[in-house]
Structure formats: C-alpha cells, structure tokens
UniProtKB/TrEMBL annotation:
Organism: Christiangramia salexigens
Keywords: Iron, Iron-sulfur, Metal-binding
InterPro entries (alphabetical): Elp3/MiaA/NifB-like_rSAM, MJ0683-like, rSAM, rSAM_sf
Ranges for domain Radical SAM core: 64-301
Record-level Gene Ontology MF annotations: catalytic activity; iron-sulfur cluster binding; metal ion binding
The keyword Amino-acid biosynthesis is annotated on this UniProt entry: no
Keyword Iron-sulfur found: yes
Protein name as annotated: Radical SAM protein
Pfam families: Radical_SAM
Annotated NCBIfam families: rSAM_PA0069
Length: 357
C-alpha cells in the first residue's frame, strides 16, 4: 500500500503496476522528499487527452450478466474517477495503469462517428440496441468540448436506430433536443447512475461526477421531456451506501424514473488493491469492516468472476439487498415499465433517407 497524503479530486491514490508490463515502477521516498523540498508535485496531476483511430467501434457483448448485446465507447479511461469502476482493468490493455492513469489518460476515438455510420448503414447490419457506454462514461468532462457523443446521437437519429445511454453526468441535458426526437419514435432509453443520496459519499466515491442534486434534476428533466429514464444504483457497497436503498428508490420515483437496477461491488484485478488503498485513506475506521463484508459476499475474496453470481453476490447480505429492492420497487415503482426500443424503423433509413415504398 502506498504512503502519502490523500489525493483530492481523484479516486485512485496512485498507479498500480500493469500486469502486462515486464518492468514495474516504484516512486521512492527519496524522490518524494526531494519534490516536497522543491515544492514540486510527485506526479503530473493534469488530464491528458490522447487521440486514437480504432478500426471498429461497435462491440459485441458476450457476458450473460450484462443486459446489453452491443456497446459503443467513444472514450477509454474516465475522468470521473469512480474508485470502484470495473472498467479500470481495461486500461491495462492500452499499456496504462488501472489507477491514476485511468483517470488522467483519456483515449478519444476520433473516428467514432464515421465507424458507427459505416456499421449501421451496412446492408448486413440488423438493427439491435447499441448502448453508450458499456465501459466508460460517454458524458465524462471532455465530452463538453469534443461533442463526440452528441454527434453519435445525431447519427442514430439520422438512421432511426435504437440507442441506450448509461451515464452519471448531468451533461446529457445538453442533448435534450436530439433525445426528444429519438424518444418520439421510441428509439432511446437512458440509465442514469445514482449511487447515493449523500453528497459527501458521492464526493469521495465518484470525485469528478455530477452532484447528487444535479443528477436528480436530470432524472426529472429527462422524464418531463418524455425521455424514458431509469436508474442504476451501482454498486451497492456494504457499510457505505447499502443503507440507502429504500430512500433512494423513493426519491428517484418522485423524479419520474421508470425503474431501478443494481449491482453489488466486486473488486476484480487491480481494483482490489486500488479500492483497499483508497478506503484506508478515506474511511480508516470502516475499512476492515467494509473489506470483510465484500469478501463475505464473494466467497471469501474481493475478486469474483463467476457468471450468474458476480453481479449480485451471495450470502445473507446479498439476499437482504435483493429483498429490499423487491420491496422498494413494489412500494414506489409499481406499474411503471420502460418501453421496448423500436428496432423496426431502421431498415427504411439504411441509406439515411426515408423510403417511399
């Protein structure tokens, strides 16, 4: 576990070694002391934007635990810095760390729109919902400047193709004009992530995300605009947000949400060390309890890769969480149902134009 003060504004408190690297890098105390004496930072705290040009953009999702068949991620890495994020591990495939690198080195897929257009205009493509984003947030801070997600939505609208959105950023409201048009033909559904109603919990768990107030307002504004919106309370972390299930579902129901889903925290790969280092710094009085309870949920380990179990966990705690969500849905979301996305229009718009016959 690394020493040093808490790094404000970031989730991870350092970089873990990349499992694919032949060599490991360690910052020695001598260098830390030198930087301190000189008034310099040990690491560059700025976010770097790295342009990439992939050959494909729509990914087939094969996991039986994830409720999507295709996903599209315009960005790799995520400046939101959520400490628990399962996507951190994917950054190692790009040669970076799952720790601070994941939050500070953001890979931008500059040709995302042209790749999407090529994919969904192909005669061989049969329309099925594509989700933005299954891995990293499509509305993370750099989107405000680059507007790649907005351009992708315009492409989906042009071809009348169904799209799902997962985000925890209020920036999605910027694109209400496009979302309204998509919703008129039942071509869009939004899942907004709300992990807690407590701002202090949000601030340390998800340091660069939209505030809880902004997210609740976003649910309400999307709903009032006729855009189907549900909420993901993900992840449930014992002794951190597990006590909030009932009040959170009640609040999102008041704002117009059509449904709620959840996952239980699992700390696969490098995330186990990253999360452990973080919790000993931010919640030292609760650290042992939280880590112990997470292990109880996942067969004695922080790491759980078992299909069918890994997302919901097992044991008494997992059963209690499941029961609370059943009760909460019955009390606050009864008879609400999100509409099925429309996959029938796209064929008539394959060339970007409506066919007369």
């Amino acid at each position: 576990m690394q020493n040093g003060e808490y790094i404000k504004g970031r989730g991870a408190q350092g970089n873990r070694s990349n499992r694919f690297d032949e060599h490991q890098h360690e910052i020695l105390d001598d260098f830390r002391n030198y930087c301190s004496a000189e008034g310099d930072e040990v690491r560059d705290s700025k976010t770097s934007i790295i342009d990439t040009f992939p050959k494909s953009i729509v990914n087939k999702v094969t996991s039986p635990d994830i409720g999507m068949e295709y996903s599209l991620n315009p960005y790799q890495g995520c400046e939101h810095g959520c400490i628990y994020c399962y996507a951190r591990n994917s950054h190692e495939y790009w040669g970076y760390s799952a720790g601070l690198d994941f939050e500070q080195k953001i890979l931008v897929k500059k040709n995302a729109v042209s790749l999407l257009e090529k994919k969904i205009s192909s005669p061989r493509w049969e329309a099925k919902p594509i989700v933005l984003s299954g891995n990293t947030d499509c509305y993370q801070p750099i989107e405000k400047k680059l507007k790649i997600t907005r351009s992708l939505l315009q492409c989906f609208l042009k071809y009348r193709h169904p799209v799902g959105i997962i985000t925890k950023n209020a920036l999605i409201q910027r694109d209400l004009d496009i979302l309204r048009e998509l919703a008129q033909d039942n071509l869009v559904h939004v899942n907004l992530s709300v992990t807690s109603l407590e701002e202090e919990t949000r601030r340390i768990l998800e340091p660069r995300t939209a505030s809880i107030k902004k997210r609740l307002e976003t649910i309400e504004n999307l709903s009032n605009a006729g855009i189907p919106v549900s909420v993901m309370m993900a992840p449930i972390i014992p002794a951190i947000n597990s006590h909030e299930i009932m009040p959170l579902v009640k609040e999102i129901a008041k704002r117009g949400a059509l449904g709620v889903g959840y996952t239980i925290v699992r700390l696969n790969g490098a995330i186990g060390e990253i999360f452990s280092e973080w919790i000993y710094k931010t919640m030292p009085d609760r650290a042992e309890k939280v880590l112990h309870q997470i292990k109880n949920i996942h067969g004695g380990s922080l790491n759980d890769s078992r299909f069918g179990i890994r997302m919901k966990g097992e044991g008494e705690f997992a059963a209690q969480v499941s029961q609370q969500f059943k009760i909460a849905r019955k009390l606050y979301l009864k008879d609400r149902k999100k509409p099925r996305l429309n996959c029938k229009l796209h064929e008539s718009y394959k060339d970007g134009q409506m066919k007369l016959f």
